[in-house]
Amino acid sequence: MFYKRLLAIGICVSCIVVLTGLMGCTVTASTGAVTTPTITEIWGPGPDSWGFQPVFYDIAAGSDGNLWFTESNLNEILKISPKTGNINTYQVPTAGADPKAITAGPDGNIWFTEIDANNIGKISPKTGVITEYTDSTISNMATGRDSPDNITAGSDGYLWFTGGDRDIVGKVSSRTNLFTEYNVANTNAGFGGIIAGPDGNIWFTEGVTGKIVKLSPKTGSLTEYALPAANAVPSGIATGPDGNIWFTEIDGNNIGKISPKTGKITEYAIPTVGSFPQDITAGPDGNLWFTEFGGKKLGKISPRTGAITEYNIPSADAAPFAITAGADGNLWFTEVGYSVGKISPKTGIITEYRVTN
């Protein structure tokens, strides 16, 4: 997502605290009660040699039923069992790789980007073995870097990713590991999320230019759709159950949708001012769920009515970032700095697995 590269935290850690509670949910018309969460401790990943705490970013549901997420400071890929809450860590081979976005691939592996190592990596859920691939097509380019940031699995068997340093969208074959790149129309586009749309195209956000863009995998052609406000800063993006493309607007403080058929854009204002919405995903309940980095909340929006409901996260210093639907029926999310959590779409109960001193 667009602001991933701007966030960094360094605090010692030694264990994980699990906070669970039914948090207050806010709709434009009503507010729910707030209860005190219970706390349980389980051991988790500790600090690195410099004392930096884990910094959790993106999260994805794996083919093995676990949730996989990236950790930047400790240079790791982690998985958490939705059944037990146990966490396993896997060190990325290249030092200082800075793993960021992560997604389940069509081959059953988990694929991720390494923004500082300029690699695309994959990890086998069965063995935990990590393989890294470098885009050989950039060897003669002036910058020599892609800085791959966000990634998604396409319906064509490729993993599609954005490369911010050279303003490209690329793909790598999950079968041959060969790379192909497409230049975008704008420089310093400020890529946000990227997804494979229901129309067979690749859709992504450009935070700096304030546009939603689609790319045809067949022709490589690009179509841009400008948002009503140029400074809206679109970020996360997802396909909704209604067939539309939904996205967050960080500075616009909106949830938006665009019709793949007509290109019509509709925006919905988030009740909390300065909510800083980051990521968005389709939930098992037919709603779209999103994170509010500034509002310290999770939100959901009905694709039928546009009604928005917000849920307070137990931690006072919560910083929800990425979100995905898990195989267990919950929505799982990362909090930059120290936590991964889940919310039940049925009950609104939030559980945080928190790294603490």
Q: Can you put this structure into words, describing what you see?
A:
- With 357 residues, the protein is an all-beta fold.
- It contains no helices and 31 strands.
- The protein has one domain: YVTN repeat-like/Quinoprotein amine dehydrogenase (Methylamine Dehydrogenase, Chain H).
- A six-stranded antiparallel beta sheet has the order 3-1-31-30-29-28, with no helix packed on it.
- Strand 10 and strand 11 form a beta hairpin.
- The chain is globular and about 45 Å long.
- 52% of the residues are buried.
Which keywords apply here?
357 residues; mainly beta; single chain; Methylamine Dehydrogenase, Chain H; disordered N terminus; globular; 5-stranded antiparallel beta sheet
The percent range for helix content is under 10%
Q: How far do the termini sit from each other?
A: 28 Å
Radius of gyration, Cα only, in angstroms? 19 Å
Structural class: mainly beta
Count of helices? Answer: 0
**Which whole number gives the mean pLDDT?**
83
CATH superfamily: YVTN repeat-like/Quinoprotein amine dehydrogenase
Described by strand count, sense and barrel closure, the largest sheet is: 6 strands, antiparallel
User: Into how many domains do the coordinates divide?
Assistant: 1
How are the strands of the biggest sheet laid out side by side?
3-1-31-30-29-28
Number of strands: 31
CATH class: Mainly Beta
CATH fold topology:
Methylamine Dehydrogenase, Chain H
Percent strand equals over 45%
Low-pLDDT residue intervals, each spanning 5 or more residues:
1-18, 22-51, 139-143
CATH structural architecture: 7 Propeller
Shape: globular
